[in-house]
Amino acid sequence: MRKWSAKRIAHIVNGEVQGNEDAIVERVILDSRKSQTGDLFVPLCGENFDGHRFLNNAFENGASVAFSKPKMEISNLGTTIIVDNPLLALQQLGTAALNEVKPQVVAVTGSTGKTSTKEMIYAILSQRFNTFKTKGNLNSEQGLPMALYSLQEQDEIAVLEMGMRGRGQITELVNIAKPDIAVITNIGTVHLELLGSQENLALAKGEILEGINKNGLAVLNGDDKWCRWLSENHTGKMVFYGLSEKCDIRAVNLQIDSLGRYSYNIHSGSSEVTIKLPIPGKHHVYNSLAAIAIALHLGMSWDEIIAGVSSYKTISGRQLTKVCAGVTVIDDSYNSNPQSIRAGLELLKLHPTTGKRIAVLGDMRELGDQAIQSHLFVGEQLFQYKVDILICNGALGAYIGQGAQKYTDIKIYYTDNNQQAVKQLKNITQAGDVVLIKGSRGLQMEHIVSDFCKGL
Fold first, then answer.
1. Which of 115, 151, 193, 366 has the fewest CB atoms lying closer than 10 Å?
2. Architecture of the CATH domain 4-83
3. Contacts of 304 (CB under 8 A, 6+ apart)
């Protein structure tokens, strides 16, 4: 555990200590309600909020140190480090922690599959290396440096997720943690509302390539046309993965078992290696190929790679399957977009069941002018996925139902909020059914999962 003094941190961020210079910081936090002894509280500021309002609360809850802008009214409960810009100071602190440990940095971005790919990379690389990964959704200009402070001396590789909402944000992240290996999983339509065009989306994701260290490696989805487009202007080393013949790391002879789990072969020299995925979903074929490309680049053996793939586990909110009173619930509630919703529906289709297949689908947000048409299109495609019952949650989710209305064998319900969706779900489910729950982050549809299972 890192234990830097307030004095040392002040030197790193060009700040001034007010209070105990020897106060020790073991953890960085952004939420004053979760502060405890050894914490450094960082008050973030925006157009409509100022985290300095919570400085005293952070100290009252136990924080040892806090950043603060000059001339703020603060109690004497803890030590403050005066800085002009708390966010910039946080980023400088994260970079300093990274530079002290000096791990190889693997950075992952993309429209979908970032977290799953990060987890797959971590599962494989951990078979040989001391490997660090960012946890949860710490993939922003605030979350990434906060995570980096927890790097340990023994960490040889850091696997970092990098998210974005607009141009310049990936650049900001690679300036905090310059990657030795950069992965782009795909470039879809997420954040189209903010960026206006798919070309702009590609350019925003492509900022990660501009930040790669000299002699670094770009690992790109070779089946994604926008990844190929970005590669045309990248002069560094690249590896393409996918299913098509033009890919360097290619899966062939795909097979699927009764639980929707894929296996495939990869050619390695004169031999052929079989990879068996422990979790269902075709998209995990791509996630595993990206991770395998990195493992091979780092000199790992096939035995290590196969063991790492086998150890991979799904995380909460991302196609995690649980059984509640005989009803199988596929919790894919963390987020939703046109690409990931198809992956979720494919999993619903492949899941064995003795009952009904039920899809609870909410809004897909940040799609801009394509929002309504994208929802209608999902509904029009539902016949492919053997859906028996559709629950449309939210204003945009209702367009999915509108698109599916031509299929008379799909029963459609409409709900305005999560509470209504839970009530409707409880009324129609019985043992043997399988339920997919998916919607954009803003809908917080994980509450449907927890409330549905509660009391069954």
1. 193
2. 3-Layer(aba) Sandwich (3.40)
3. 124, 127, 128, 295
What does the alpha-carbon distance between residue 415 and residue 386 come to, in Å, rounded to a whole number? 21
d(CA 120, CA 355): 32
Query: Which residues of the chain register pLDDT less than 50?
Result: none
Dump pLDDT digits (tens) for 163-176: 988 889 999 999 99
**Per-residue confidence (pLDDT) for residue 112, from 0 to 100:** 85
Q: What is the 3-state secondary structure (H, E, C) of 210-232?
A: HCCCCCCEEEEECCCHHHHHHHC
Q: Which CATH number fits the domain 320-455, given the four candidates 3.40.50.2000, 3.90.190.20, 2.60.40.10, 3.40.50.1000? A: 3.90.190.20
Q: Which runs of consecutive H residues, i.e. helices, occur in 238-311?
A: 283-297, 302-311
- Sign, CA dihedral 377-382-385-391, equals positive
Give pLDDT, residue 335: 84
First vs last Cα of the chain: how many Å apart?
42
pLDDT score for 370: 84
State the alpha helices, DSSP H only, in 331-445: 338-350, 371-380, 397-404, 418-428
Token couple for 346 = 């494919």
Q: How far is CA 336 from CA 78, 199, 243, 332, 438, in A?
A: 42, 21, 24, 8, 6
For the beta carbon of residue 156, count every other beta carbon within 10 angstroms: 15
CA 39/CA 67 separation, integer angstroms: 11
DSSP 31: -
Strand order from edge to edge, sheet including 327-331:
320-324, 327-331, 434-438, 357-362, 389-393, 411-415
Q: What is the pLDDT of residue 113?
A: 86
Amino acid at the residue 178 = K
pLDDT for 194: 67
Instruction: Characterise 374 by phi-psi region: left (phi > 0), alpha (psi -120 to 50), beta (else).
Output: alpha
What DSSP element (H or E) covers 240? strand 237-242
Domain boundaries in the chain?
Answer: 4-83, 91-311, 320-455
According to the model, what pLDDT value does residue 369 have? Answer: 81
Q: For the structural domain made of 91-311, what CATH number should be given?
A: 3.40.1190.10
